[in-house]
């Protein structure tokens, strides 16, 4: 088996001078470990340049694909072969003082080799990094009340697995191990924030808004107890003016006459567990002799984890020179994005007494501590003109439960409320949300990110409004559809064309919709006791986080072999397949070598404070004068960001390589001979250049092989490698660069590094001082203004779903007969990946609509007794696997960008099911999930 070297070091000034190094997993002889990703076989690409399978497909189907959880110390190069194991003891009461632990039940044989308590961490100088985000303490201090249910109180470490396993089994479910004192009030953190987005247009969709968040300000509230206190109206500042507009909207609703339908409804969306098959885990070895922390941990955000671990340990008594973080395949549907668990793994490793320590949740522990989807309470009002069916006003007041650690709760809250308009244009809107803290298990970044809750409620409301108005539900949607160039509820104009109207017209013509009345009559006549219904849901979901950053490099050697290196890490979306295909679309050949999850970029000596949301415009203007400064180095793998945002870096690197190297090299070959050769008589331009199947052609000139062009580029000493750094704040950053031998060039990137061919001059080679690359300090940069943060979102992907259900009035069961989805994902890079995302997302949505539910408090997962024996997930039989269908809108042209769809695909089916059940039994539901007991109560 081939050996793979370690990846070196990544310097940072943000961690007290500590070096940290993030590596992909090494391939070693004595374990079936895979590089990320494995290199594909020779049959991977078909004759038309399309992939025959995912890069990791063979590993997946043969059981050879490994995740972070699969590794032990003996599998990791350079680690000691023997390791320890650890588990956490957690509090199951959040209204009593914690007084300590009683391990009598373990006896002498199962006593841990090391017990770590809060007081040990304090004595050793270990404190939680970013306490406002992750919580103020690791372990509950003696004499204090836990912040949340399931909060760890102690860490137990064993040097051998057998004793560890026996002890863990003996302690589980034993309510006498944790000792509690007197009862107290709850001790959760302060509430996490309140925000309000108010907009009133200028009389039309295109006129300048009277007020909007984008034009003016987002309004932020404070708390008096559990109630939000908003700024007072009547003052001259932007938020006060927004409150005045909100008051006008409220008065208009109150004054609505008989010519308007004023629909007020309250909705509830439950807490759920994402149920990723890989539970949270980590394996950490602190090498005290070398002052190095070696980490193998499951995370979606390795770059940030390494930085924060360095910060955590550098302030403690443990000397630290380096953090060496291994990353590999993982999966989490967002729940491994900035979760606290990796830091517990780091702490465990510090107390391993020279041995690696593995800390890994079992499924009971995963339910007890893993990030949850937020529970939402939504109070919505919709005002509709009865004569025209046009929406006049929509208001929303949301409350969501973030549990006992802040995490991304306030961000999820903001995204939920900015998405609440769904696919509709609203002339006037007042959308507010409060992110509340509680003793519940922490909620955070989970697939849907608040929009599943808010848009499902909107779609259920619009469907009911159509019924009350006597208008076909799709017709009502058509009258109010959000069209291209219109403003969202934040006052920003979304990117590109919005194709919701096309989807609505297709849905209206689909047999499931046109034949629903006839099929209902026939089905119910043939199936006594069962009711038939068809429902429709239509949403559009933002993609991106508003501060997307990525790094990618594409280069070729003199033989024409292409290498792609990328920050993207495989999260199950197929990024390791789609990114090489993007290179192939531009260069006519997929890379011969790929490397993902890369964070060592010596050719990108950039500086950042990583404050893309909070830095003032004045401060950013000052900092951007430094040609090595960027608002963010790289973002986590989340927010449906791989195909468009991470792919932008891939596409820019490949396109720049064509401009700087392949086009001039091809011209050189075609221009050989007297009088400019065969090239001179023709008028051939850069836009005429074509790459396909390893061949290069342009404007009637002889076909060249990619290898010939690559060799010529190296001979001429042209640019043969391009690395770019990109940044997006709902708009791409652009910069100007003075490239040797070229005019000043403008690119949609903010940093550029070049590698010159083997034939380049000594002077040119001397420029490659940044890890063998020439880092070109930009001449100018244009970052999107900080005010664009208030846009909330400018990138949307729409999905609509028609659902056909049968409701058994004797049992209350809702059975999906079939479902049909329509989607605009722009240009598909790998259609099979899009199909897989759609099918998997719909299954998750079905679970949310009909089955999955977690109580928030003492009878919920924080008590440690929850597992899949009582948490119901959808099976294949529940998801209409064999009767599902889908239609994707074709791109308008081959230049259409791909759109992120990994989150939106799960949302539309949720309200579609609710609306189908309403059509079936004539009763509407306002709380999810729609379980058999609720159905039986409705039909009784």
From TrEMBL:
It comes from the Bacteria. Residues 260-481 form the Aldehyde oxidase/xanthine dehydrogenase first molybdopterin binding domain. Coiled coil: none annotated. InterPro entries: Ald_Oxase/Xan_DH_a/b_sf, Ald_Oxase/xanthine_DH-like, AldOxase/xan_DH_MoCoBD1, AldOxase/xan_DH_MoCoBD2, AldOxase/xan_DH_Mopterin-bd_sf, TAT_signal. SUPFAM superfamilies: CO dehydrogenase molybdoprotein N-domain-like, Molybdenum cofactor-binding domain. PROSITE patterns: TAT (PS51318). GO terms for molecular function: iron ion binding; oxidoreductase activity. Residues 506-878 form the Aldehyde oxidase/xanthine dehydrogenase second molybdopterin binding domain. This is Aldehyde oxidase. It comes from Pseudorhodoplanes sinuspersici.
């Amino acid at each position: 088996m081939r050996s793979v070297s370690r990846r070196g070091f990544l310097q940072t000034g943000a961690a007290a001078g500590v070096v940290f190094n993030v590596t992909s997993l090494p391939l070693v002889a004595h374990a079936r470990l895979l590089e990320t990703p494995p290199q594909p076989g020779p049959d991977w690409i078909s004759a038309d340049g399309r992939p025959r399978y995912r890069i990791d497909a063979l590993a997946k189907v043969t059981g050879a694909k490994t995740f972070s959880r699969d590794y032990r110390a003996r599998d990791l190069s350079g680690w000691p072969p023997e390791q320890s194991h650890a588990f956490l003891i957690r509090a199951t009461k959040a209204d009593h003082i914690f007084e300590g632990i009683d391990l009598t039940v373990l006896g002498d044989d199962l006593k841990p080799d090391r017990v770590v308590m809060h007081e040990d961490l304090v004595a050793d100088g270990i404190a939680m990094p970013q306490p406002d985000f992750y919580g103020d303490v690791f372990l509950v201090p003696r004499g204090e009340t836990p912040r949340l249910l399931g909060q760890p109180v102690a860490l137990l470490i064993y040097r051998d697995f057998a004793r560890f396993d026996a002890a863990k089994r003996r302690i589980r479910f034993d309510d006498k191990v944790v000792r509690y004192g007197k009862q107290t009030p709850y001790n959760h953190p302060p509430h996490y924030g309140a925000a309000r987005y108010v907009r009133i247009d200028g009389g039309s969709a295109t006129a300048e808004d009277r007020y909007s968040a984008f034009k003016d300000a987002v309004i932020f509230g404070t708390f008096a107890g559990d109630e939000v206190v908003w700024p007072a109206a009547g003052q001259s500042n932007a938020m006060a003016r927004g409150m005045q507009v909100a008051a006008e909207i409220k008065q208009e609703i109150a004054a609505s006459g008989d010519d308007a339908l004023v629909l007020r409804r309250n909705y509830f969306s439950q807490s759920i567990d994402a149920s990723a098959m890989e539970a949270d885990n980590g394996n950490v070895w602190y090498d005290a002799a070398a002052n190095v922390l070696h980490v193998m941990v499951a995370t979606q955000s390795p770059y940030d984890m390494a930085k924060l671990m360095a910060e955590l340990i550098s302030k403690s008594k443990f000397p630290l020179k380096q953090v060496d973080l291994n990353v590999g395949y993982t999966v989490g549907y967002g729940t491994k994005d900035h979760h606290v668990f990796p830091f517990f793994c780091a702490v465990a490793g510090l107390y391993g007494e020279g041995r690696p320590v593995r800390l890994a949740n079992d499924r009971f522990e995963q339910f007890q501590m893993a990030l949850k989807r937020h529970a939402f309470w939504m109070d919505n009002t919709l005002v509709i003109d009865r004569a025209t069916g046009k929406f006049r006003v929509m208001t929303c007041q949301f409350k969501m439960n973030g549990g006992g650690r802040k995490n991304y709760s306030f961000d999820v809250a903001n995204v939920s409320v900015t998405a609440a308009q769904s696919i509709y244009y609203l002339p006037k809107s007042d959308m507010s949300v409060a992110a509340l803290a509680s003793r519940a298990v922490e909620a955070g970044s989970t697939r849907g990110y608040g929009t599943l809750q808010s848009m499902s409620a909107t779609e259920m409301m619009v469907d009911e409004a159509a019924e009350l108005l006597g208008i076909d539900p799709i017709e009502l949607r058509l009258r109010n559809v959000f069209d291209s160039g219109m403003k969202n509820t934040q006052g920003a104009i979304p990117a590109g064309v919005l194709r919701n109207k096309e989807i609505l017209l297709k849905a209206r013509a689909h047999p499931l919709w046109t034949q629903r009345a006839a099929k209902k009559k026939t089905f119910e006549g043939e199936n006594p006791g069962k009711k038939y219904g068809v429902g429709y849901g239509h949403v559009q979901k933002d993609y991106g986080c508003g501060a997307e950053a990525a790094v990618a490099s594409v280069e070729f050697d003199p033989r024409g072999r292409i290498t792609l290196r990328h920050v993207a890490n495989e999260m199950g979306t197929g990024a390791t397949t789609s990114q090489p295909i993007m290179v192939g679309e531009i260069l006519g050949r997929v890379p011969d070598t790929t490397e993902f999850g890369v964070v060592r970029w010596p050719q990108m000596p950039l500086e950042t404070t990583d404050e893309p949301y909070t830095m003032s415009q004045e401060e950013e203007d000052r900092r951007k004068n430094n040609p090595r400064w960027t608002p963010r180095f790289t973002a986590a793998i989340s927010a449906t960001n791989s195909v468009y945002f991470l792919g932008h870096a891939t596409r820019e690197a490949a396109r720049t390589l064509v401009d700087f190297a392949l086009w001039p090299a091809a011209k050189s070959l075609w221009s050989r001979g007297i009088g400019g050769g065969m090239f001179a008589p023709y008028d051939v331009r850069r836009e005429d250049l074509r790459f396909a199947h390893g061949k290069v052609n342009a404007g009637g000139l002889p076909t060249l092989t990619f290898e010939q062009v690559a060799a010529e580029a190296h001979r001429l000493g042209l640019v043969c490698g391009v690395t770019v750094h990109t940044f997006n704040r709902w708009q791409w950053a652009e910069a100007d660069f003075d490239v040797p031998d070229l005019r000043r060039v403008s690119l949609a990137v903010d940093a550029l590094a070049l590698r010159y061919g083997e034939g380049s001059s000594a002077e040119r080679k001397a420029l490659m001082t940044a890890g063998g690359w020439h880092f070109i300090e930009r001449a100018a940069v244009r970052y999107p203004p900080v005010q664009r943060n208030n846009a909330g979102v400018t990138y949307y992907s729409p999905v609509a779903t028609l659902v056909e259900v049968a409701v058994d009035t004797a049992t209350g069961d809702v059975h999906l007969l079939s479902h049909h989805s329509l989607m605009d994902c722009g240009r598909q890079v790998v259609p099979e990946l899009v199909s897989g995302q759609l099918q998997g997302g719909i299954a998750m949505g079905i679970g949310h609509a009909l089955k999955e539910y977690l109580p928030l408090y003492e009878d919920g997962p924080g008590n440690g007794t929850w597992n899949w024996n009582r948490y119901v997930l959808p099976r294949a039989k529940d998801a209409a696997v064999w009767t599902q269908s889908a239609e994707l809108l074709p791109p308008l042209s081959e230049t259409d960008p791909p759109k992120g769809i990994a989150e939106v695909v799960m949302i539309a089916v949720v309200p579609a099911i609710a609306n189908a059940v309403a059509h079936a039994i004539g009763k509407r539901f306002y709380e999810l999930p729609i379980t058999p007991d609720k159905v039986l109560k409705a039909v009784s």
